Amino acid sequence: MSLFLWACSSGSAKKAGGTGNTKENVDVDKFETLIADKDKVFLLDVRTPDEFEEEHIEGAIEIDFKERSFRDECLKQLPKDKVIAVYCRSGFRSSTASNILLEEGFNVVNLKGGITAWKEAGKPTVKQ
């Protein structure tokens, strides 16, 4: 049953209880189109600082999902008036992080497959 519920919801927008905010899981091409609009979208990498330094999507800021201060740092650094486009390595951390952001009143788009899918699709990254 839980697999059925996950399959039914994994690609669709979800609303937080009564807030009007949404979370959507999107593929690489849609993510690329969305993040091109820097006036409306803010790009967030939720991997560790070491992962971020190794390689990231241009224009992203890094807030480590594994840190206890993740929620507080997001509330300090992220604009509520923009869609937050979130990614990690494979999509697992960013999906969980997206749920936290949704609870805090953000509109969120999560990259399915993370930076791994991004690179497999031949999309550019910044290497330090």
Describe the structure.
- The structure is a single chain.
- 38% of the residues lie in helices and 19% in strands.
- The chain has 128 residues and is an alpha/beta fold.
- The model is unreliable at 1-12 (pLDDT under 50).
What does this entry show, briefly?
This protein is α/β, with parallel strands linked by helices and 128 residues long. The protein has helices spanning 2-9, 28-35, 49-54, 70-77, 92-103, 114-120, and strands at 14-15, 22-26, 41-45, 61-62, 83-87, 107-111. It has a single domain, classed as Rhodanese-like domain (Oxidized Rhodanese, domain 1), CATH 3.40.250.10.
User: In the CATH hierarchy, what is the architecture at level 2?
Assistant: 3-Layer(aba) Sandwich
Instruction: Round the Cα radius of gyration to an integer and report it.
Output: 14 Å
Give, in spatial order, the strands making up the sheet with the most strands.
1-2-6-5-3-4
Coarse structural class: alpha/beta
CATH superfamily: Rhodanese-like domain
What's the structural domain tally?
1
Distance between the termini: 44 Å
